[in-house]
Specification:
The protein has 6 helices and 7 strands; from the N terminus they run βαβαβαβαββααβ. The chain has about 220 residues and is of the alpha/beta class. The longest helix has 15 residues.
């Protein structure tokens, strides 16, 4: 099985579905990562873009994903300034390289880049007259208290108890982005969210997804 995860920024793939990535890789499936943008803008002052790229590579390796691809360099916090057509075509090109069985992308959070990639991925994944992914779903962003109230799709949970340590190590690989306790993307917060999602579905730890399309 081939799996594609689309993320607005490097680390969103870990925050939203690092557990799923690790599980699919452990099960022997190929997992590709497409990162919309990476660069210096979203990093703390003085952190060069090549450091962010190295962190992305390390996180992917920890989770068992293949080498990530990056659509646009240096557009952190300004993906919404790119023509939507360019974003859609970039994601379409990634989809055309492999016939994916599952595709996951982030729901539209408060961040303008997340909204831009959600809309572009939604457009790129439209039916185009050829077999598409059997499963298309949205992963969540840790700002669950500041999330849209009208997220599309039915709930789908993935048990990540066995791979939670991998998710923690992958997030720790983003050393330049480490946040203080209490921040929504700090590990203690991500861990608490995984525990809460686990309680919701009768597991120790889980990730939540919203199904847009599922074909058996």
């Amino acid at each position: 099985m081939s799996v594609l995860v689309i993320a607005p920024h490097a680390d969103d793939e870990v925050l939203g579905c690092g557990g799923l990535i690790a599980r699919r890789a452990r099960e022997g499936h190929e997992v590709d990562l497409v990162i919309a943008t990476i660069g210096e803008r979203c990093s703390p002052p003085g952190v060069p873009g090549d450091v962010r790229r190295r962190e992305l590579h390390d996180a992917a390796e920890i989770l068992g994903a293949r080498e990530p691809s990056i659509l646009y360099e240096g557009y952190d916090a300004k993906l919404d300034t790119l023509p939507r057509r360019h974003l859609v075509m970039g994601i379409e090109a990634a989809l055309d390289r492999t016939r994916y069985d599952e595709v996951f992308f982030s729901y539209p959070s408060h961040h303008q880049d997340h909204r831009a990639i959600y809309e572009a991925a939604f457009a790129a994944l439209r039916e185009r007259g050829k077999p598409g992914p059997g499963l298309v779903a949205l992963y969540e962003y840790p700002y669950v208290g500041w999330a849209p109230s009208d997220i599309r799709g039915g709930r789908f949970y993935v048990d990540i108890a066995e791979v939670l340590p991998q998710k923690e190590r992958a997030l720790a690989a983003y050393r330049s982005r480490r946040c203080a306790p209490g921040h929504p993307t700090a590990w203690e917060s991500v861990h608490a969210l995984a525990r809460m999602r686990g309680v919701e579905c009768g597991r120790r730890f889980a990730e939540l997804f919203y199904v847009l399309k599922m074909v058996e």
